[in-house]
Amino acid sequence: MEVLIEQIAIYGSVVLLCGLVIFFYMRSLSKKSAIVEKKVAKAKEEGMFEPVSLHPYIDLNTCIGSAACVADCPEKDILGIVDGKATVILASNCVGHGACFHACPVQAISLRIGTETRGIDLPHVDQTFETNIKGIFIAGELGGMGLIRNGVEQGKQAMQNIASAKKPKADGVLDVVIIGAGPAGISATLEAKKQGLASATLEQDSLGGTVYTFPRSKLVMTSPMDLPLYGKVKLFDTSKDELLQLWRKVISEHKIEITENTKVDAIVPQKDGTFKLSTSVGKDYICNNVLLAIGRRGTPRKLGIPGEESTKVAYRLLEPENISGKKIIVVGGGDAGVESAMLLMNDNEVLLVNRNENFAGIKPKNREAVTAAIDAGKMKAVYKANLVSIAPDSVLCKVGEDTQQLPNDLVYIFAGGELPTGFLQKAGIEITKRFGHIVKKHK
Ligand SMILES: Cc1cc2nc3c(=O)[nH]c(=O)nc-3n(C[C@H](O)[C@H](O)[C@H](O)COP(=O)(O)OP(=O)(O)OC[C@H]3O[C@@H](n4cnc5c(N)ncnc54)[C@H](O)[C@@H]3O)c2cc1C
Ligand code: SF4
Known about the structure:
By secondary structure, the protein is of the alpha/beta class. The chain has three domains: 2-113, Alpha-Beta Plaits (2-Layer Sandwich); 123-299 and 420-431, 3-Layer(bba) Sandwich (FAD/NAD(P)-binding domain); 313-416, 3-Layer(bba) Sandwich (FAD/NAD(P)-binding domain). The chain has nine helices and 28 strands. The strands form nine sheets. Strands 6, 7, 8, 13, 14, 15 and 16 form a seven-stranded mixed β-sheet that branches. Helix 7 (335-344) crosses helix 8. Residues 55-56, 73, 75, 78-79, 94-100 line the site of iron/sulfur cluster (SF4).
């Protein structure tokens, strides 16, 4: 009898212990779920729940809540787990590099562009990357496929297709002009050289494309990429500087020229089957083929005022930590302008020029932060204000009816961007709005 009682006691303790472990485990899961749910609610409130470009789509029937995607995503709070299933949180911040796609052990994630409610314009391309206009090809993120490796692969393949359909050469006519020098454009440029094509590469900004503008230096590449004239690049966890250096090295070793600070304004098909490209520097190019590798980020909108071409004017903020002791004008009361002004305000004298009368249209978090910064005197702001002209050491600014001359060292302009849609349509390229278009899924 005593033995039986002892056994029941042991059995009871084990059950109790297991029960307690399960109870505390469930309680901790439920606490974590509640935290993520709160973050989701806040993201929705702040307009950050809707993805802007390529993003993970989670199949809830397949998801087992392993959280491998959460662990592998290098960005903060884009994914989380609620009640044992993955969910997106700050989907607007997703950069679409797909680390989560590869991490999921049960292949519950696909990468999509656009959502059921928010369509994204995608140009039509066939399997050779050619658009409905014969001779105009598209590679990289513009066609809906994000990631550095994908851009490199598509740039190479598109150029191989251009080379295989080589058209007869006429004097002064290039085989191909590559527009954009991001991962896709660089790879296409190298492949053009390898194929012996007469080509030119035109970049409105700097070599590297979106990679050049990354705010963080760490890069993620989930598999090796095959760079023409170089071979396999096995940089899985690398920095943007290392990748840019590699690209520059290969380009200079093969004596290739990439023309920076040259925007292509228009592509006009000619009667003889060639294309005439007009550029921001006044030079025209005639070519048999065009490869568009212009990404999806568009072109920063300019103000069109005297002095804007000065070297003290910039349209994006790189390495704010290296700027100090300057008098800086930041133009733009949108999120980009406000965020940049706040990054600069601690080490510089910042004046934010807002053409609106307040910050009504921006993310609530930014609105609160910028209002607090202005109230605390950390930066100044003028409203209903527009820059009139930019001189070497000052600017003219119209504030209401009053025009003021303000001493100044640097000007940052965040007046929005012109998306490439209009540029493509003018060239005759067909575009369709896609809602939740699957770009990558497991077979
Ligand atoms: C913050 C951030 C982090 C990311 N992290 C990663 C990562 O870790 N790993 C990864 O694989 N991917 C990452 N990505 C995604 C990756 O950067 C892009 O998918 C990739 O750069 C797309 O390459 P692309 O060549 O198609 O276009 P882009 O890199 O966007 O290059 C297009 C180029 O075309 C130029 N251009 C545009 N219009 C014109 C014109 N009219 N005339 C001349 N030039 C023009 C632009 O100035 C630009 O330089 C990240 C993206 C962001 C925003
Ligand atoms: S695509 Fe990249 S940034 Fe977006 S959720 Fe997946 S791992 Fe994070």
